[in-house]
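re: ur question from earlier - yeah i can do the single chain one, its not a big deal. heres the input i used so u can compare w yours
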Amino acid sequence: DVLAQKLLHAIDASRQRPLPRLLFALGIRHIGEHLAKVLARQFGTLDRLAAATEDALMAVHEVGPAAAASVVNFFSTPRNREILAQLKEAGVEPEVVVAAPQEGTFTGKSIVLTGTLSTLGRKEAQSLIEQLGGRAANSVSKKTDLVIAGTEAGSKLKKAQDLGIEVWDEPRFLELLQQEGLRGED
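and the output i got, formated as tokens:
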């Protein structure tokens, strides 16, 4: 029966999920979606992350003492190790993540996108920022290093200007992407 086949296929497909999603789903204290991505990129596999020391975790940009302690505590708890072993036994094998380059133009920088970009979707632009070592943030604050403003940019652009934060337009961002080899000429 077709429905049964589809269901079996869906179950099989669910066994291999992206590592960041699994990390986030584990509900480790202080590990939200963004930090789950950062950790997945840094360590690549669940086993390597599980074996990481607090010092190794704290060496990762954006991981503070509370998050590092929380991760070590999570993976050292016998009940959690048992659950992870059961998941592995059931065939849950998160995809291995290839580490992103550690150094890039935006390494250590918080970047906010605002307005509409005419040549890039928001998710694609955020991914490109992350490939360049930066963090794509959602709101402008004193910790924001750069704002990339598309058309119809509103309150985020105004707040950035009020705080004296550097603002780039889309052509300048595209020029950087081209220099970094992340996009060809349009």
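The first strand starts at residue 110 and ends at 114. not sure if urs matches, ping me
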